[in-house]
Amino acid sequence: MSIMQMNGGSVIAMVGKDCVAIASDLRLGNQSLGISSKFEKIFPMTDRVYVGLPGLATDVTTLHQQFRYRLNMYTIKEEREIEPETFAHLVSSTLYEKRFGPYFIEPVIAGLQKTPSGDLKPYIAATDLIGCLNFAKDFVVAGTASDKLFGVAEGLWEPDLEPEDLFETIAQTLLNAVDRDAYSGWGAVVYVLTKDKVIKRELKGRMD
């Protein structure tokens, strides 16, 4: 068994039209033994940047605190809010520092990036254990249900989805994928980021 499957969990981020969504399941397990159905894996870094941390539960807590500390240091030094692309590189360098004894986490970053003209455009990225960045224009996935998430997302995702359609697409993708994975599931949470608000919704899932 891979240590990445010890606690289970999956995260997906998806791009829409001037909006972005990130979603995760809520299960915390010890392999096939379920422990909690309220384990958060998605954390707001700023109003426009969210990070999902699927992997080993102890490293989820450690890395969240590490990112929060580095983000505060950046804000104090730069006197401005961090952009999603900059945060993705911060995540990458934090993981690469520990490459010889890595954190067992595959972060997923979603946010709205400010362009030179002042507009906000969706931005998503994911990294592996040692911080190798993977950018995408449609969706990125991580966690124990990755294969299933890829399959369902490729069938459901379309370009330029409005916020409500994006929510429906990411919710159906996640729920259908985790139903086919023993280590993920037990409900889900979805965040949809638009130019003027963040929508958070919790979903009920199968509990077997």
From TrEMBL:
Coiled coil: none annotated. Component of the proteasome, a multicatalytic proteinase complex which is characterized by its ability to cleave peptides with Arg, Phe, Tyr, Leu, and Glu adjacent to the leaving group at neutral or slightly basic pH. The proteasome has an ATP-dependent proteolytic activity. GO terms for biological process: proteasome-mediated ubiquitin-dependent protein catabolic process. Component of the proteasome complex. It is found in: Cytoplasm; Nucleus. Its main location: cytoplasm. CDD domains: proteasome_beta_type_3 (cd03759). Belongs to the peptidase T1B family. This is Proteasome subunit beta. One of its GO terms (cellular component) is nucleus. Gene3D superfamilies: Glutamine Phosphoribosylpyrophosphate, subunit 1, domain 1 (3.60.20.10). Keywords: Cytoplasm, Nucleus, Proteasome.
